[in-house]
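With this grant's support, the team has encoded backbone shapes as discrete tokens. A representative record is reproduced below.
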Amino acid sequence: MTGLDILDTVGDFSTGTVRGGAPKARIASYKVCWNVMGDDGETDGSCSLVDEWKAVDDAIHDGVDVMSVSLGGTIPDDSEVDKLEFIAAFHAVAKGIPVVASAGNEGPGAQTVVNAAPWLLTVAATALDRSFLTKITLGNKQIFLVESLYTGPEISTGLAFLNSNSDDNSDVKGKTVLVFDSLTPVAGKGVAGVILAQKPDDLLSRCKDFACIFTDYELGTDILQYIRSSRSPTVRISAATTLTGLPATAKVAAFSSRGPNSVSPAILKVIDKACVISNNIWLQQKLKPF
């Protein structure tokens, strides 16, 4: 736990104070990653192994009680005795300092977990114990509950399907559009809202210029059938509200990496809710145009 009191600032959702398990703890931060400019002039994050080793040594010398290391690659390519970052962490554990490391964000596929060394406390990410429901009402009076971070006024517009595989899309300016898998086709079209049908996902984003509504393929197909069977399809979108308790209980997030580790399959990690990080809101934009 960080010991920080964190004020929730996600619009009007879940307002209040979140307190860690050690509210009086102090934090020591060691920087090991940097923005490095590539040959193309673009900057990208890069973490130095030398800096990682030095940070661990400094933390041991400073007398920290717990280390939290949110570092790891996307491919489990080295065993626990070959990866130098693991050796650095072993020095800390040998001094009696628990080291907590992330399982990775390459889920939900199997054999994607990283940081699987037996001396590491490997943690997954979970969805929150709540969901953010938005009511959408179609012109035929069908009502669906979907998820979004939309907090604006109620929207009532025409409804259209935007086919990313076709150039023959009618004018959708001012309408709410249904798309599958990607927001890319929406760029520059002046839509009022987007209903994005995709594989089950625990990540929500907030779009800049319009309401973003998230649902699965099944509901997306139902909405598509309504659009194709109506001469003038419409939709009404309400602001999202917070639902707590069942059935919105915490679960391992879809993007969190799964085991077993392909290099060291004999090492199994048991995910305990006491050591899981909650994270199902993604406030950054998935796509730069938005």
